[in-house]
Here is the input.
Amino acid sequence: MGIIDKLRLDAKALSHKCDAGIFDFATTAELKALDGIFGQERAQQALEFGLSIENEGYNIFICGAGGTGRHSLLQSILKKKVRKMPAPPDWLYAFNFRDEEQPLALSLPAGQGAVFQKQLYQCVGKALAAIEQAMHGADLGKSRGEQFQGLVEEANKRLARMEREARRQGFTITRQGEGFGTVPIKKGAPMSQDDFMGLPEKERGELMKRGVALQEKINEAMRQYRELEYKARNRVQNMEMKVARQILRQHLDLLKSDYSENKAIEQYLSDLQEDMLDKLDLLLGQFGEEGEPNFFRQLDRRSLMRRYQVNVVVDNSGLKCAPVIWESKAEYVNLFGQIDHESEFGVLSTDFTHIRGGAAHKANGGFLILEAERVLRSYYVWNELKQVLRSHRLQIENPGQILGLFGSKGLRAQSIPADFKVILVGDLWHYYLLLENDEEFRRLFRVRVDFDTDMKRDRRHAKNYARFVASVCERESLLPFAPDAVARVVEYSSRLAEDQQKLSAHFDHIKEVLCEASSCCGRRQSSIVQEHDVLDALQARKRRSSMFEDRLFENLKRDILMIDTQGERIGELNGLAVYNAGDYMFARPLRITAKTWMGEKGLVNIERETQMSGRIHSKGVLTLNGYLGSQYAQYQPLSLSASLTFEQSYGGIEGDSASSAELYAILSSLGQFPLRQGIAVTGSVNQNGEIQAVGGVNEKIEAFFRLCRQKGLTGEQGVIIPCQNVRDLMLEEELVTAVADKRFSIWAIAHIDEGIEILSGLPAGERQMSSFTEGSVHALVDQRFRKWNQIKRSGQADNMVSANVIRRRMRR
Here is the structure.
């Protein structure tokens, strides 16, 4: 058996079929839905550890690609975890009667915050109504009347005495504005101004003197009266305050008794009672001095009534266990709350009723889950999150104050204890970015949870895949899947994983295929998804994304892009390149050409010279120098000028998967032996000539097969791949059938020598001291180097003779 047949892969090696017989159900409707995900044992263990440990700094960072079940597994584990954790307390903000600029933070058991808010509102309302009723009641009115009746009687007595005294002295007392004055009398009647001015000057002076003295006595009497009035009003006010205090105590003591174990609530209610008594006049007064409604007085009263309310910022009445908050919009206000403002007559104002909590407040006592990317978009969000985790306190502030946009004076609500675990979900690069640039990150997020992109393919995981299909069907109301349909899904999962012994953990991608397969089944009016529905869905999925690929192969078919699939050429070979178009990956054949000539320039990579080559590709080309020097320059210098290029490639080239093909083209050009154009090559090579694994091997093989099928299969065509990639093969059924029918071949090689024999039909050759086996590839290449070195030496000798002749002539 020649090397071509020895290295040719059997059709069975090109895919790993899933036997539908391992599934013991008629449809997935019979299966119990999967709770969460599977195949992420490492992540599950790390997550359970991180959730169980209560020490400081053991917050969690979840790393992994999107769609690998990060949220599903987290949700499943948290659902079990929080069942054992009690619901956290409610948090309220109330007016601080001792410091108006620092609202009080009050805590009550879960669900009691809203109850207390309602009870307080009703209690204050009923107490004010009862006080107002008592103020207008008969008992207090009678007591008030008795106090003022005595005052009136005393005032009348004093006025009567002063009137008698005034008449003895020739005066009468009259009311003047808010006081009393004296007027001279004549024949028992007040004297007119003309009569007064007609009196003799001496008599008039005496009259004025007596009038001044009498006025002083009247003023003294008025002062005494006002003092009596003040005392009477104080007695009335004390009576009113006593009644109001009794009514308030009666109502508030009943409320206090409900919260007797909460000292903070008790103290708050006591302070509230004293403040209400202090502002009782304003609370009860609704009219201006003239009895008409006064808008500004009502506004003040309404504003005052807010002092006796509470603002529930965290209401856990709907919780039976610890909260789990998923905050997708990780902005500062959403996470940490803010203090709102309202405009009154063009002026911004605020109070404790405008304090609004954020997701961190809702998560207190439980778990806060955030997307790392969104958190890292804002320095202030990340900085505040670290501050909360360090201090274990939650402080509500205005973002404007943090940025220095407003003055420093304003409400500064009391902070509340922060007791929650933060779980950041992101990619691996987010984790390393923080680890490298933020020294606090390691101390605050001590648990790393890695989600893998694939899992081992075995019977257990295949059956779990069936349960996963069942759970998706249940959640998304899809049609049930038959066993053969599930088997095709398992095979497609291995294709996604690019490994026959692995299954993909990209569950979101699989879910999309399930939905589309169910839709295909529905369109043909069937009730059970079969194998061909899955295949139809995959084919339709490919067609939706393959427009550019189809255009490219159309150009290949028309020879606009020139690729030969038959015949032989020197220094030319078909390589394979992979293109990633977002969610779709495909490959295309590329013609690689090499030209060699005698010289000292070495290997010239045209793509690199034109800045169309990536660093990895350039490294792969430079590796070829090492191989050529090691193989052919042990006993002679390596005199070589060569150029390499990808023909009709107008985009950038990256990766080293074409380095073996480039080496084959160089060897062909050097040895002047032809290479079969019906064979495409992929695989990188090291300096020892060993072939190394590459990516996208399925897409590459299928791309060349498609081109050969377009131009006509001859049975001589195929693809050479690294032997390490055999396990990655999950090829389309049509291609596997073509290989089985010997219309197409795939060879797996481990060394450059094996590939060159398949491509050239010549033996690679073995080293024999300073030469190689006669007629072999290496012998042909070595002979070319020897010839060039001989020409170079003879040229140097001719140059030396010429130089000697010139020197002799110069001496003459």
Residues 137 and 775 are 128 Å apart (CA to CA).
